[in-house]
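Hi support team,

I submitted a single chain yesterday and got back a structure, but I'm not sure I'm reading the token output correctly. Could someone confirm the output below corresponds to the sequence I sent? I've pasted both exactly as they appear in my results page.

Thanks,
R.
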Amino acid sequence: MRRLTKAGIVVTALGALSLSAYGASAADTAGTTHGHTGSARTAESVSWNHGTAQANKRIMERFTSEFLPTGDPALAKKFLSPDIVMYFAGQKQQGLDTYLGVVAANQKAFPDLKWTVEDMRAEGDTVAIRYTMTGTQEGRFAGHEGTGKKVHAESMAFYRLSHGKIVEERAQLDMLTVLQQIGAIPAA
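Hi R., thanks for writing in. Yes, this is the structure output for that exact sequence:
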């Protein structure tokens, strides 16, 4: 029997917790599938997971380069599920029309709005993107009339895809920075 040091026990326990927290796909990636190691099924699962992640990443690359700059409703139908669920600023919203309304309102508030992809990671059905948002506030935003002030803020979003379409978006914009830059709240 192998003796484990205290650090070894902690690392082993953390590894087991990580695998249970991430479920079967993490176990597949780690090289185990329900107690089996090194099986053909494991290699197939890893290959499938990687293939799905790469396909979803390509879809998101097109979404960010084709749809985001324009907000074109015809393009939205290519990328977004009609029943998309969005989580923004602690609120849940649903539906393609709602999504397009949010995009249109942001474009009206910031006519030169630009989302720059800084980093993109994909695993399974989820793609995480870190953006930089820039624009000039010309219209109403967060209850504040246009100021003509430029904004630059960071944003992160997690997208879940199914059958080649985005079915869920969880986004977090650095709203504090945006509100400070438009003068809606005092800067620190």
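A quick pointer for reading it: The two ends are 59 Å apart (CA to CA). Let us know if anything else looks off.

Best,
Support desk
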